[in-house]
Amino acid sequence: TNDTLINSGTISGTGAYAVAVRFGSGNNTLVVEPGAEFDGVVAGGAGANNSLVFAGTGGTLTGHSNFYSFQNATIANGASWTFAGTGTFSYGVTLSNAGLLTNTGTLFFPASAFANSGTFQNNGAFTGNINDTGLVNNSGSIIATLAGETGHANAIVDRSGTLTSLTNTGV
Prior knowledge:
Blueprint: E1 4-7, E2 10-12, E3 19-22, E4 29-32, E5 37-39, E6 41-43, E7 51-54, E8 57-62, E9 67-68, E10 72-75, E11 80-84, E12 86-88, E13 94-97, E14 100-103, E15 106-116, E16 119-122, E17 125-132, E18 135-138, E19 141-143, E20 145-146, E21 149-150, H1 153-156, E22 158-159, E23 162-165
Parallel strand pairs: 1-4, 2-5, 3-6, 4-7, 6-9, 7-10, 8-11, 10-13, 11-14, 12-15, 13-15, 14-16, 15-17, 16-18, 17-19, 17-22, 18-23
Antiparallel strand pairs: 20-21
């Protein structure tokens, strides 16, 4: 079955792996609203099209490295979120930003994609591939990657939008 969970509270995992949420088979959707907190692993399940949606305004996500088995992650149109702390999105996930995403921590996208059509404010460190048709404001560092290598910023930061860099680190 295709399941949907909408969370704006705290879900805590127990046991050896501290699993807070584990979806089953099917294409599942987790909607994360401001106030949501996950104490433990959140697993998208066995579906081939599992979605993680950040909705609402004023949300802050810390410890977001706990999300696994999601193929799509989205900052919804009109939503505003801050990603703080250190986080790695699972291999192969596409993060799409149609709202406002502020990074104050460290984001790492191994062989994944970040598609920005909204506003991305990077005050921390970002490593990965950016496909930008929106606005990127950078006062932190952006290290673009290509096939596991670093230093190919012009080849990987693909933008038809606006890039404003207040530092020269990696852009």
